[in-house]
Amino acid sequence: MYDAIIMIIIVLLLRDPIDRAFSHFRMSFVRSSSNMTFESCVETDIGALIRNGVLPTDYETMSDRKIDFDELEEKWRKYFRTFRAGKEKRFCDGLVARGMYSMQLYFWKEAYGEKALLGEKLLAVRNDYLEPNKITHEINLKRISDFMNMTDIGSVISGKIHQTTDAYKGKVSDEVRIKLQNLYRPFDRELSYLLGSEWEQPWSYS
Question: How many other CB atoms are found less than 10 A from the CB of residue 60?
């Protein structure tokens, strides 16, 4: 498996984790008959992270803490095994956890080595890099095509942009946004150590 993985080039698209969580929820909402709110789903997933030891009970005050990924590894695996066993509400699976990007990247690095992260096998870009130009509707792919040695692909003209049907009428409340900002900050801070200095303060709230 390792020999196959090291031959793969990966382009990783990262989005503001709060926006990602809300988009995740809206997509799940459209596909289900659930009447859960975004706020209740956030609390469900945070509760699962706390019960499995991934987050402390006082996670809202952990913004300045250093993340010990080695200490969290088995707890992280246990958290995901809980879902596979059907012990949580599947509608909310990974809603918050998937935005802890540095946790997942750290385990990738541990499995496949430093070179798998720092520019040789993996390119990480922010999702707004692929937003089309408002006038020309072009999406600039030069950085990605150069990384993949596909120098003849510089940009493409965007067609219809995928958007989730707005069946869910709620919004992200200020209270929930601040809670998630405090939760994600220590994980966001680790991105610069894993991916390089351009990932310092990657999101507007960082």
Answer: 15
